[in-house]
Amino acid sequence: MAIHITMTTDVLARSRFVVSPAHEVVSAVRLRGRHPAPHARAWYELAACRMDRGLLAVLEALVPDEHDYVSDFLAPPPEPGDTIARQAARIAGTDPAVVDYHLDIGLRGRAVRPGVAAMHGDAARYERWRRPVPPVLAELVACGPEVVARTAAEAVLAFFEAGVACDWPDVAALLAEDIRRRGELVAARGAVAALTSLGPGLTWNGDGVSLARRFEGTVGWAREGLLFVPVTAHDGPVRFTAEEPYTPMLVYRPDGIARLWERQVPPDPAPALAELVGSTRAQLLMVLDEPLSTRDLSRRYHWSEPTVSYHLKVLERSRLVAAERRGRWVLYRQTPLGEQLLGPCEP
């Protein structure tokens, strides 16, 4: 059984890659603290500690951990340059009829949409597939689909800010690299090669794309190709989302996500430099030949953020590093004095 997305190779060639912060949130929440990727587990643990418990309960009710359907309005089709704030605004503004439709698909006891039921073969099988309505979600649904959409947007944004935001620069860089590499594959071998590289169960059959699933269905409105969405917190096979008239999405896990939790070894300082300023401060000074935040340094090396912050303040007071605010981040870098100090002390 499979989902079939009909298109020609010319239409497939119109496909494009886009980044979606909201998909990172949904994928991290889906497996809670059991996610196989350490960075996704860390996001969930941070969010569970920092965000409002009521909002987290709503998000968990909307993103079940033991069911394979998540309401698509929680992660709308991403647009180029999307931020989590822009996506949250689109979630909040979801058409109430769309919210109801998405809730109907996966929740037992709600209206049965004939087209969805037909994909499962018969009504009884479809009803067994649907899940009970969690109490916290039942209370929210009673307030109307507009309230569901606004609360969902607030919850997605809160989870991102509490758990994902601190790592987002690294995530965005990794996603950009994956997109660049697959773009080179398109240029060298064509769009079909890029498509089939996204993961198993995804095939090109000459007149479209087939994606192995437990139900049958056909998508005939992919007139502008597909949206390929790399998500570092995605686990499992390529995930498919399609709501007419929007361009269908294929969510996949990019290569190289281990970089998000692996730590680098800081360089060994020259003995004279270590004796003068201390070993940790010497190492910090050496790696600050590029602007980095305390979070960057903590994740990249084996230091806690309080340790990094303490030593950076000492180096800053000594005028060996300087701080510069860029948006929400404070970045540190060697000063000319720091560079001069490094020079004579090198072996």
Automatic annotation (TrEMBL):
This is DNA-binding transcriptional ArsR family regulator. PANTHER family: ARSENICAL RESISTANCE OPERON REPRESSOR ARSR-RELATED. InterPro entries: ArsR-like_HTH (IPR011991), DUF5937 (IPR045981), HTH_ArsR_DNA-bd_dom (IPR001845), Metal_resp_trans_reg (IPR051011), WH-like_DNA-bd_sf (IPR036388), WH_DNA-bd_sf (IPR036390). GO terms for molecular function: DNA binding. Residues 261-347 form the HTH arsR-type domain. Coiled coil: none annotated. It comes from Promicromonospora iranensis. Pfam families: DUF5937 (PF19361), HTH_5 (PF01022). The lineage of its organism: Bacteria, Bacillati, Actinomycetota, Actinomycetes, Micrococcales. Keywords: DNA-binding, Transcription, Transcription regulation.
